[in-house]
Design a protein that fits this description.
elongated; Mlu1-box Binding Protein, DNA-binding Domain; 2 domains; four-stranded antiparallel beta sheet; about 180 residues; alpha+beta
Length: about 180
């Protein structure tokens, strides 16, 4: 089998969402990528449900689904009768054992590679994230000091607006 990517990586990346602390993909998005109908994909999954524990696949709650839909300006969700299932990286891996089309297998390989790249990027940038967190901790608690500086600046600006009383020697008219 050729190791050719069928679709651009950006298309796949845009279909990955972060829900319940997991990077997941919707059943409808996966079905679309595989060139299948969502109901056919879900039928295959139900026939092999023992392969999909809750850390591989779960169904969205009504609230999660509404939040997900609200993130998109245009609705392409259609009229779903059931709440969608989402698949973690492990679930996507398991899908390759359930779906047997060459396209599905090729797309699965691409998706798994993208998940792996994302994980590697996070690990590579872990040090930066830790440093940012340390900086954030230093900034927390500085609000009172910042407010105090702001109040002093405000007082200074307001004092500049008031007319100043002249100080010093006033000359008198000496011609008298």
């Amino acid at each position: 089998m050729d190791d050719i990517l069928i679709i651009p990586d950006t298309v796949v990346i845009n279909k990955i969402h972060f829900i319940r602390g997991n990077k997941v993909m919707l059943d409808s998005d996966l079905a679309d990528l595989y060139g299948e109908e969502t109901r056919r994909l879900n039928e295959q999954i139900k026939r092999n449900i023992e392969r999909f524990p809750s850390d591989f696949m779960f169904q969205l709650t009504e609230n999660e689904f509404e939040n997900l839909k609200s993130q998109f300006a245009t609705s392409s969700w259609g009229g779903r009768r059931k709440l969608p299932y989402v698949f973690t990286e492990y679930g996507v891996l398991m899908l390759s054992s359930v779906l047997n089309s060459k396209k599905a297998i090729s797309i699965n390989i691409q998706i798994v590679r993208i998940f792996t790249q994302m994980r590697e990027m996070l690990l590579a940038n872990k040090d930066i994230l830790l440093q940012l967190e340390k900086k954030n901790q230093k900034v927390i608690g500085q609000d009172d000091r910042i407010d105090m500086i702001y109040d002093y600046l405000k007082e200074f600006i307001e004092s500049k607006k008031k007319p100043r009383v002249a100080i010093g020697f006033k000359s008198e008219d000496l011609s008298k």
